[in-house]
Design brief:
- It is built from 1 helix and 4 strands; from the N terminus they run αββββ.
- It is an alpha+beta fold.
- The chain has one domain (about 5-50): N-terminal domain of TfIIb (Single Sheet), CATH 2.20.25.10.
- It has a 4-stranded antiparallel sheet with strand order 1-2-3-4, with no helix packed on it.
- Strand 1 and strand 2 form a beta hairpin.
Length: about 50
Amino acid sequence: MIDKELLEILACPACKQDVELKDNKIVCKKCGKKYPIKDGIPIMLIDEAEE
């Protein structure tokens, strides 16, 4: 599980907008890219994101 404080400071690396936690993925509120969480660590790499 991702800490709420960490989630508040994370931003989408593609468009620099806010993100939220949905279905155990970090999802950008603007562009919709979905970043995986592996072993409790968000993988915030554009190449790893789902559209």
